[in-house]
Design a protein that fits this description.
Elements: H1 21-33, E1 46-50, E2 53-56, E3 61-64, H2 67-70, H3 79-89, H4 103-115, E4 122-127, H5 130-145, E5 149-153, H6 162-167, E6 185-188, H7 202-216, E7 222-227, H8 243-253, E8 257-261, E9 285-288, E10 299-304, H9 305-308, H10 324-339, H11 342-364, E11 370-376, E12 379-384, H12 398-410, E13 413-414, E14 416-418, E15 424-427, H13 435-452
Parallel strand pairs: 3-13, 5-6, 5-7, 7-8, 8-9
Antiparallel strand pairs: 1-2, 2-3, 4-10, 9-10, 11-12, 12-15, 14-15
Helix pairs in contact: 3-10, 4-10, 7-8, 11-13, 12-13
Bound molecules: ligand PLZ.
Amino acid sequence: MADIQYRLEQVRRVSGEFPGPKSVELAERRKAVVAGGVASSVPVYVADADGGVIVDVDGNSFIDLGSGIAVTSVGASDPAVVGAVQEQVEHFTHTCFMVTPYEGYIAVAEELAKLTPGDHEKRSVLFNSGAEAVENAVKVARLATGRDAIVAFDHAYHGRTNLTMALTAKAMPYKTNFGPFAPEIYRVPMSYPYREESDIKGEEAAQRAITMIEKQIGADSVAALLIEPIQGEGGFIVPAEGFLPTLAAWAKDKGIVFIADEVQSGFCRTGAWFASQHEGVVPDIITMAKGIAGGLPLSAITGRADLLDAVHPGGLGGTYGGNPVACAAALAAIGSMREHDLNARAQHIEHLVKRRLEALITDLGDGGIVGDLRGRGAMLAVELVRPGTARTTKEPNPEATKAIAAACLEAGVIILTCGTYGNVVRLLPPLVISDELLEDGLDVLVGAIRAHA
Ligand code: PLZ
């Protein structure tokens, strides 16, 4: 990008054999001390990262199309974030906002009140992780409504803590053998346009979920409806137009708190500050994390003042929530998003990627193994199916998905997969990636898809 200074050379440069010796050595040390339950999708260890590249300890330079799962939207070492962090750590690293408060926390809450959808009065609470934000949104909704039931959706991902595991749909690897799970969680069908049996409209898909809620739970028992406006881990599923607004309007009518989980889709990722805005949805509570602080751990809930202020003093908090260094980073990251107009940048990335992948789909004839291309802004994905089933049975093709991701990595492009069926290749580039580097990464991806089609 013309107005961004990169510290590292923005190139893809990998030697024939990686992991190199230093990464191999680290892998051995890791094996001896790090729990096997923590998996890494890439076998190299990082030495440096900047803009659109990650450089490993052996000097290989990879194109980053994952942003550490949608976190480093402003880059992994945005100078503004780095400067703000350095400045803050020289003063204090922690005091605990619940003991001796500080301005950074308030300033972040002021930004969140401005940036989140709706011009109603809002309040915010800061935490550390996305799961923690979701947990707290649920706490607030239950207390404020005096109801128990929480409705989540098919393909949802909300985290790995006990409550958020219960809210997450996929068993393996997230839930299997980790139960028992928190009670009073109900799951209803999502709008998943590519996999609908018929050409069902968004409003109809919403009504399908609403009917299930009314018949099986009873609207009066529901504290909250929790939904990712664009689903992340579940497969970058963009619901049909009308689905979200219909659900939000029904929830409002029934006194149900509408919680938008924008942990993955927030902060310019989809070409808007929040994905809810694409259809003019104003959530009662919104959960945020990932992109919010340029790589430092910070999460937040922002919502209607009457809901948040219903909680008794001391009812919400945590030792590290709204850590001053993370707050400084968030203020700087938000500043960079504004300064570089990263919403426009995400829209530009969408245009660029879709043009390449649409051409590929046409070329492969009836889609080949590409069943669906979807997403918004720089949150884009292709769903892969078995050859010739793209328009018919749509049989998931997790093997090709894995092979394509592996081929990309082999060529020096870090690409993530997702999806209930493990058959989705997703693109989450840092929004500051240069056009040249992104095009180079797309060349590799398109080549890999062709090779497996
Ligand atoms: N809500 C919508 O996407 C995190 C998790 C990857 P934490 N997604 C990446 C993994 O395998 O753990 C996520 C999300 C949505 C909540 C979360 C949870 O955020 O910061 O990982 O707790």
